Amino acid sequence: MEDQPLATSDETTSDDRLWAALGYPIPIISLVILLMEEKKDIPFLRFHAVQSIAVNIVIWVLIAIVVPLTLGVAGICAPLLWFATLWPAYDAYKGNYTEIPVITKFLKGQGWV
Length: 113
Description:
mainly alpha
């Protein structure tokens, strides 16, 4: 399967890039993108909305597993995992299709992006 090309400024608007970037740290925005008729049909937004939901699910599952295993000690560090969403958010704001190794491959295999 061939990789998604980098988006250029002609393909995406600054509004699209902002929506995509905000979807990573604030996953509710990704859900809103997928529910809006005019937004969900834009390939760039759909790619980032689905991927940001998957990234956030993975982060919260990791938190749910690690915190009880460490008797709550990792609970102090759990909010730091939120910072992991800032890198793909920044890359999306630049107009790129961010490739997150395991997650993107899984989502493409399922046909979700």
